[in-house]
């Protein structure tokens, strides 16, 4: 199906089409570009105009540019605009305007990507659903997701993130959601904010983008829940709350049984049960919030529960797999994609509840925590989950604070980098262990995960959840 014709794209982006072309996708990366895509020459670490020729050679249907790069054939299909970023945003707005889709925007300090994927699984059973890819949630990720949206989309799930104040509201206004959700508010990006309450205000600004009569889905359990409610009221939104303290979608019970999280909740006075194919009480809370969103979008509860049961986390976000070693197996909890104090506590709680000969944690620095960083790292030692964890190995300068705070019997190895830690793995892990790897993305805990997989012999690993 054609996504954009040259005429439509030129009108939407206030540009000039060179050639008569059409495209069926939009891409910013020549490494993953598909034939027929519109290549968007953004300026990031490198100027995308340097790769226009390569994109066209790979079959791109056209390229969105602010000037014509040298070396192109005279008949190269292009969309010439004044500013590529602004034009991408214009394309996104036009795609949003031409669809009759019911749209949800999701933000939060923790869990927004997982919740977005839960929603895609739920809504995908009930209509044609379009959702953000990976963690495409920033100033180019949101308009890119919108620009890719087919005109016959019935449900759209847009993830919105931030690093600094003032970033969420403009993106929410591009998405124009009918429902906006804040998964939770926690100590993340404290380098750019004076307090967690300030983070709550920024997250709550997502409600500024709501369509008239829109719904704000808020977490009733967080300390700054009233900040979210006040912002929703100011936006004229209907408020739907979820959590153990909520009246609308109340979580009553959570049990972890192997790789499955089973939950009981009360939804507007009626008791329901739902399950998730991954262990973690935080998944139960995100799943309940997603059910609230699906309901606000007009989804059917039974179909949403079935869709949720079919969801499992992506690589690096809580995937559990069995690694076959000589003499036995180890269970790996790969949560290496990112970390802040709240998500770290949740991951350690999952590890503590798991069954294994020994529970071993490899944890890396949590970034962007500002002046409180060392104290927040050291504070992990006092978490309830630490009682059941036999050994904690620490990676990075900030994790030295946790390493020092741990009792002697739990204090493992400290290294400055994940690469150094990976070299010691055969001495630290043995058959029968259950192992968690978690840290901020820049700490490269994926290297530890890869190192554990390299220990595998023979048949290799058996994944318990789809990546």
TrEMBL record:
GO (cellular component) term, any one: cytoplasm
Chain ranges of the Mur ligase central domain: 106-294
Transport among keywords: no
InterPro entries: Mur-like_cat_sf, Mur_ligase_C, Mur_ligase_C_dom_sf, Mur_ligase_cen, Mur_ligase_N, MurCDEF_CellWall_CoF430Synth, MurE/MurF_N, UDP-N-AcMur_synth
One of the protein's GO biological processes: regulation of cell shape
E.C. code: 6.3.2.10
Positions contributing to ATP binding: 108-114
Compartments reported by the entry: Cytoplasm
Signal peptide start-end: none
Catalyzed reactions: D-alanyl-D-alanine + UDP-N-acetyl-alpha-D-muramoyl-L-alanyl-gamma-D-glutamyl-meso-2,6-diaminopimelate + ATP = UDP-N-acetyl-alpha-D-muramoyl-L-alanyl-gamma-D-glutamyl-meso-2,6-diaminopimeloyl-D-alanyl-D-alanine + ADP + phosphate + H(+)
Residue ranges constituting the Mur ligase N-terminal catalytic domain according to the UniProt record: 23-67
Primary subcellular site in the record, as a coarse category: cytoplasm
Family: Belongs to the MurCDEF family. MurF subfamily.
UniProt-listed PANTHER family: UDP-N-ACETYLMURAMOYL-TRIPEPTIDE--D-ALANYL-D-ALANINE LIGASE
The protein, known as: UDP-N-acetylmuramoyl-tripeptide--D-alanyl-D-alanine ligase
Organism: Falsiruegeria litorea R37
């Amino acid at each position: 199906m054609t996504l954009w014709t040259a005429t439509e794209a030129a009108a939407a982006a206030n540009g000039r089409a060179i050639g008569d072309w059409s495209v069926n996708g939009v891409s910013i990366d020549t490494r993953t570009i598909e034939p027929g895509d519109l290549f968007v020459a953004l300026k990031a670490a490198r100027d995308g105009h340097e790769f226009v020729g390569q994109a066209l050679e790979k079959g791109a249907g056209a390229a969105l540019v602010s000037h014509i790069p040298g070396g192109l054939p005279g008949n190269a299909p292009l969309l010439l605009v004044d500013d590529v970023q602004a034009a991408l945003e214009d394309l996104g707005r036009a795609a949003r305007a031409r669809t009759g889709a019911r749209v949800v925007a999701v933000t939060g300090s923790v869990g927004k990507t997982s919740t977005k994927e839960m929603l895609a699984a739920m809504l995908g059973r009930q209509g044609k659903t379009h959702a953000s890819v990976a963690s495409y949630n920033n100033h180019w990720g949101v308009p890119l997701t919108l620009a890719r949206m087919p005109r016959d989309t019935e449900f759209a799930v847009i993830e919105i993130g931030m690093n600094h104040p003032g970033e969420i509201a403009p993106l929410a206004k591009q998405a124009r959601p009918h429902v906006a959700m804040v998964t939770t508010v926690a100590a993340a990006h404290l380098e750019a904010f004076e307090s967690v309450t300030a983070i709550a205000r920024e997250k709550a600004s997502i409600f500024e983008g709501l369509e008239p009569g829109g719904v704000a889905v808020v977490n009733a359990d967080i300390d700054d829940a009233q900040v979210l409610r006040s912002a929703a009221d100011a936006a004229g939104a209907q408020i739907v709350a979820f959590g153990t303290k909520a009246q609308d979608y109340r979580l009553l019970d959570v049990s972890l049984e192997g790789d499955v999280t089973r939950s009981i909740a009360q939804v507007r006075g009626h008791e329901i049960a739902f399950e998730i194919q991954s262990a973690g009480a935080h998944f139960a809370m995100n799943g309940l919030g997603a059910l609230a969103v699906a309901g606000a979008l007009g989804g059917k509860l039974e179909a949403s529960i079935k869709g949720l049961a079919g969801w499992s986390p992506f690589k690096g976000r809580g995937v559990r797999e069995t690694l076959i070693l000589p003499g036995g197996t180890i269970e790996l909890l790969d949560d290496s994609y990112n970390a802040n104090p709240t998500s770290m506590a949740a991951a350690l709680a999952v590890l503590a509840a798991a069954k294994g000969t020994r529970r071993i944690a490899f944890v890396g620095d949590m970034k962007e925590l500002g002046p409180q960083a060392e104290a927040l790292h050291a504070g992990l030692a006092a978490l309830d989950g630490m009682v059941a964890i036999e050994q904690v190995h620490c990676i990075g300068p900030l994790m030295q604070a946790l390493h020092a705070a741990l009792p002697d019997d739990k204090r493992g190895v400290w290294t400055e980098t994940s690469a150094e830690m990976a070299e010691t793995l055969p001495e630290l892990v043995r058959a029968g262990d259950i192992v968690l790897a978690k840290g901020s993305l820049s700490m490269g805990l994926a290297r530890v995960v890869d190192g554990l997989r390299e220990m595998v012999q023979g048949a290799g690993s058996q994944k318990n959840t789809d990546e």
